Amino acid sequence: DPYAATSVLKLQSLVSGLGQYNANLNMAKGSLGSAEQALSEAGTIFNQAYTIALSGANASTDQTGLQAMASQVASLQQQLLNLANTQGPSGQFIFAGQKNGTTPFAASAGALTFSGDTNMIRVEAGPNQTVASTVDASNALVTAYNKLETLRNNLLSGNAQALSTTSVSDMQNAQASLNQLRSDVGTTLQT
Question: What is the dihedral of CA 46, 52, 58, 61, to 10 degrees?
C-alpha cells in the first residue's frame, strides 16, 4: 500500500526531527546551565570583594593588612578569569560566542582581554523556532575584572578614600551586573 508506506515514512521523519530538536534543547540547557553556575560563582566572588573593600576602607587597617587584602583580590581575579573561561558539557568555552573552541579571556598587566566574539549560538528548537544556547557576558566580565584590579590598586596604595567612595560601589555594581546576567540565563532556561 503506497499511501501507508508514505505515511510511515512521514511519521519516521517527524519522529527523527523531534529527536533532533530534543537533542538541541538538551545541549542548550547544558551550556546555559554551565553559564548560570559560573555567573553564580562570579557573584560570590564580588560578595567577597565587597567585604574586602569595606574592610580596606576602614582607616584603622594598616598597610600590611591592606597588602594582604590586595593578595586576596588577586586570588579573586584568578578565580574570575577561570570562571570566564568555563567550558560547557561538550568542552566548548561558554562565554566565547561562536569562537567557542579557543580560550576567550586572558589577563595581562592587570587587564582582562576578550578574544572571543559576541555572536550568539542559536539552536533549532522546533520548526521555524530557535533558542539561544550562549550568553554574551564579555563586557560584564571584562568590566568586573577591571574593577577588581582597581580595588587591588587602591588597597596597595592605601587609598582609603577611593576604597570607600569608588571600590565599594564598584563591587556592588559588578555583582548586580553579573546577577542580572544570571537572572537572564535562568529565564531562558525556564522557557
Answer: -160
Quote the cell numbers at residue 188: 531562558
81-127, pLDDT tens digit by residue?
999 999 998 899 999 999 999 999 999 999 999 999 999 888 888 88
- List the grid coordinates of 15: 519522529
Which set of grid coordinates corresponds to residue 68?
594582604
Helix (H) or strand (E) holding 173: helix 168-190
Amino acid of residue 190: Q
Give the whole-angstrom CA distance, residue 167 versus residue 149: 10
Structural element, H or E, at residue 113: strand 111-114
Query: What residue type is assigned to position 110 of the chain?
Result: G
Q: Tell me which residue of 80, 76, 103 sits closest to 91, measured CA to CA.
A: 103
Q: Give the residue, 177 or 5, on which the prediction is more confident.
A: 177
